[in-house]
Amino acid sequence: xxxxxxxxxxxxxxxxxxxxxxxxxxxxxxxx
Amino acid sequence: xxxxxxxxxxxxxxxxxxxxxxxxxxxxxxxxxxxxxxxxxxxxxxxxxxxxxxxxxxxxxxxxxxxxxxxxxxxxxxxxxxxxxxxxxxxxxxxxxxxxxxxxxxxxxxxxxxxxxxxxxxxxxxxxxxxxxxxxxxxxxxxxxxxxx
Lengths: 32, 149
Description:
- The complex is a heterodimer of chains A (32) and B (149).
- The longest helix of chain A is centred in the middle third of the chain and has 11 residues, at 9-19.
- Chain A has 32 residues and is an alpha+beta fold.
- Chain A has one helix and one strand, in the order αβ.
- In chain A, 34% of the residues lie in helices and 19% in strands.
- The mean pLDDT of chain A is 93.
- Chain B has 149 residues and is mainly alpha-helical.
- Chain B has a single domain (5-148), classed as Tetratricopeptide repeat domain (Serine Threonine Protein Phosphatase 5, Tetratricopeptide repeat, Alpha Horseshoe).
- In chain B, strands 2-3 form a two-stranded antiparallel ribbon.
- In chain B, α1 (5-14) packs parallel to α3 (63-80) and α3 (63-80) packs antiparallel against α4.
- Chain B is elongated and about 50 Å long.
- Classes of the chains: A alpha+beta (32), B mainly alpha (149).
């Protein structure tokens, strides 16, 4: 099990509002 | 930080996770970096459902300390929304599960404040001050709580 990070941040923000769920936004330099 | 199973579980249960990468998503990194004033990595933001930042973790932390910070942020969100009982539960959980983490002393402080806000009973603050005489004695949170003794 891992974290399925999304990269479509605008869409995530819209979904968060709709679902009233917080967002975790990671600014990363880690190898992908 | 991220491979830790407890971190994975906590993030998946509490957030919609999103990532912008400094190189692979350079345009997005610049856009959201400016929007949220995040110019260093790793920077992890907790955003409320309206996209407003309510907590940030900057720099690498070992798993226990990182998880404690994520949990603190989530608890502070409940606190700011006036969900005192939920906030108290979340803050207390940090002290119970991650007592040696850097965030534990702060969590103990805010658990007491949350309990006071929920009950309007000043003994919650007195009990918190007493708890700080047993643990986290050198923390700034112990100093802050000392006024309630």
